[in-house]
């Protein structure tokens, strides 16, 4: 694992050697797209970009820009043309927006149970079939595996099912990991994803004392949330989640803890008509980060997929309405950020890597993120355990981390995510990636047809929208710059 640690240094040395040699000015591969304003966004291979007029783009295509000082400088600053002077800049941009390439696994998701006291219509984890709990023995082996495989950063995230149904294992992992970290001295973060229904003061006290972040789901307005997320007995859950979020926030406030509750929204067909109400629910709860994620065709969602789903264009229309409302609220001084946009503008405007696994290329699955199942199986992603075939099972916690990470199945997954060749003519390729499990579930193969993949199509439309706003150079761009400068753990 130490070899991986050295990668960044080796990369820097190689680039330093390269820049010591004389490199003749050359044009790197680039891609472009016309924006609504008529300007073109042109993106270079390393992730630099520039906005050009049609005339400027024609000059680039015909390579007659050398006499045009202004255009030449623009192309050089964006690393679309390259020589000795800007090689460091180009490799610096690439390594910054792909920081994940130089890190060992950092996100370790533990599925402590596959059962739940809720029956959400879209449950990706497929809890209707679940009845299993992680044992103490498997939890301890999992922790050993994590600390052996991790680099300097470790985030342990409890997943389910409903994690609080296996509270004794959650407690054990939290206590043991904090104890082990006194020896390993990692930058350790712990987070629990829960529907919060079983959260009481005793559990919250424990989580707060051990610095465990809390994440839950609210799908928007009461109407949408209650239609999607119901208890096993068929009861509404909006009030419970709403009250528990306020309970946690109040508790933090009483203790003067600078913490927030993370909340996610899964967008089903039903939500498409309610963009404003969804944003308003978050604002009312004092939640400042909104993540609008498309529903996935995993687990229990499969049995009612036609009634949950929509086209990429329908999702995009919904998202645009939500974004326009987010801008309006920010103009009124209400600070609220859309997390999906953040993941993109971070790379585009700030050249930083938000470490969002789904936008990594090659995929972050089985590389920066691992999932440990209740039975000790290791999967390359959370979604990997949600499909029936064990295609993304890459080992067990009884093995050595290097053996699991280097397994043929895992390497094949990474390799497949490089095959995003059909989007090489997209200017948005340097900031995106594909998710092999979602590709497999949609297309029946791990070899992606990127342009046909719904989430990639949504990503491309979102990027174009964000660039339209950036090109306007107004309030929205300022807001994106503010978002891009934030650090999200
Ligand atoms: S989505 Fe979460 S809360 Fe809902 S049934 Fe599945 S595991 Fe339970």
Would you mind describing this structure in some detail?
It is a single chain. The chain has 489 residues and is an alpha/beta fold. The chain is 43% helix and 14% strand. The strands form 3 sheets. It has a 10-stranded mixed β-sheet. Helix 6 links the parallel strand 7 (153-159) and strand 8 (187-193). Helix 10 packs across helix 12 (312-331), helix 12 (312-331) runs parallel beside helix 17 and helix 13 (339-350) crosses helix 18 (475-484). The longest helix has 20 residues, at 312-331. It is globular. It starts with a helix and ends in a 5-residue tail after the last helix. The protein binds iron/sulfur cluster.
Record the SSE blueprint.
Blueprint: H1 2-20, E1 26-27, E2 30-34, E3 40-44, E4 49-52, H2 54-62, H3 69-77, E5 81-82, H4 87-97, E6 107-111, H5 136-149, E7 153-159, H6 167-184, E8 187-193, H7 201-209, E9 212-217, H8 222-228, H9 238-254, E10 261-267, H10 275-284, E11 289-294, H11 305-308, H12 312-331, E12 337-338, H13 339-350, E13 369-372, E14 377-379, E15 393-396, H14 401-405, H15 408-417, H16 436-443, H17 454-472, H18 475-484
Parallel strand pairs: 6-7, 6-13, 7-8, 8-9, 9-10, 10-11, 11-12
Antiparallel strand pairs: 1-5, 2-3, 3-4, 13-14, 14-15
Bound molecules: iron/sulfur cluster.
Q: How many DSSP-defined strands?
A: 15
What's the average pLDDT?
92
Radius of gyration using CA atoms only:
23 Å
Q: Assembly state here?
A: single chain
What compounds are bound to the protein? Answer: iron/sulfur cluster
**By helix and strand content, what is the structural category?**
alpha/beta
State the name of the first-level CATH class of one domain.
Answer: Alpha Beta
Largest sheet: 10 strands, mixed
Separation of the first and last Cα atoms: 23 Å
Based on the structure given, which CATH architecture of one domain is correct?
Alpha-Beta Barrel
Shape: globular
Count of DSSP-assigned helices: 18
Low-confidence runs: none
CATH superfamily of one domain: Aldolase class I
Strand residues, percent = 5-15%
Helicity, in percent?
A: 40-55%
CATH fold naming of one domain: TIM Barrel
Strand order of the largest sheet: 12-11-10-9-8-7-6-13-14-15
């Amino acid at each position: 694992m130490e070899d991986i640690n050295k990668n960044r240094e080796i990369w820097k040395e190689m680039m330093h050697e390269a820049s010591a040699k004389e490199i003749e000015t050359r044009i790197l591969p680039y891609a472009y797209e016309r924006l609504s304003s008529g300007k073109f966004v042109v993106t270079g291979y390393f992730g630099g970009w520039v906005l050009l007029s049609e005339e400027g783009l024609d000059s680039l295509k015909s390579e007659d820009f050398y006499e045009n000082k202004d255009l030449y400088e623009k192309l050089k600053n964006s690393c679309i043309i390259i020589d000795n002077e800007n090689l460091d800049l180009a490799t610096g941009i690439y390594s910054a927006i792909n920081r994940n390439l130089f890190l060992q696994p950092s996100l370790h998701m533990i599925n402590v149970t596959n059962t739940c006291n809720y029956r959400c219509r879209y449950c990706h984890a497929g809890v209707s079939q679940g009845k299993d709990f992680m044992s103490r023995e498997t939890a301890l082996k999992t922790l050993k595996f994590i600390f052996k495989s991790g680099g300097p950063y470790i985030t342990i995230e409890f997943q389910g099912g409903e994690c609080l149904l296996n509270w004794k294992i959650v407690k054990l992992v939290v206590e043991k990991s904090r104890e082990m970290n006194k020896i390993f001295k990692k930058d350790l973060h712990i987070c629990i994803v829960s529907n919060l229904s079983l959260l009481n003061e005793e559990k919250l006290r424990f989580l707060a004392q051990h610095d465990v972040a809390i994440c839950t789901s609210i799908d928007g307005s009461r109407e949408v949330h209650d239609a999607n997320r119901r208890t096993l007995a068929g009861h509404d859950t909006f009030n419970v989640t709403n009250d528990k979020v306020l309970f946690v926030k109040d508790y933090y406030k009483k203790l003067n803890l600078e913490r927030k509750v993370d909340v996610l929204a899964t967008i089903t067909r039903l939500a498409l008509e309610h963009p404003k109400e969804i944003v308003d629910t978050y604002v009312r709860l004092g939640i400042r980060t909104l993540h609008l994620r498309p529903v996935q065709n995993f687990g229990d969602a499969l049995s009612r997929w036609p009634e949950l789903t929509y086209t990429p264009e329908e999702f995009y229309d919904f998202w645009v309405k939500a974004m326009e409302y987010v801008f309006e609220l920010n103009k009124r001084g209400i600070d609220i950020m859309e997390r999906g946009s953040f993941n993109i503008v971070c790379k585009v405007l700030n050249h930083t890597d938000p470490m969002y696994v789904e936008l990594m290329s090659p995929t972050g699955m089985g590389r920066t993120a691992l999932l440990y199942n209740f039975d000790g199986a290791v999967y390359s992603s959370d979604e990997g355990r949600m499909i029936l075939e064990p295609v993304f099972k890459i080992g067990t916690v009884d093995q050595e981390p290097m053996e699991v990470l280097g397994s043929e199945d895992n390497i094949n997954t990474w390799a497949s995510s490089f095959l995003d060749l059909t989007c090489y003519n997209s200017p948005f390729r340097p900031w995106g990636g594909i998710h092999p499990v979602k590709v497999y579930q949609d297309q029946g193969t791990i070899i992606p047809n990127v342009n046909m993949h719904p989430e990639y199509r949504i990503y491309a439309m979102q990027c174009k929208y964000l660039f339209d706003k950036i090109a306007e150079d107004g309030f929205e761009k300022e807001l994106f710059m503010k978002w891009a400068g934030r650090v999200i753990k």
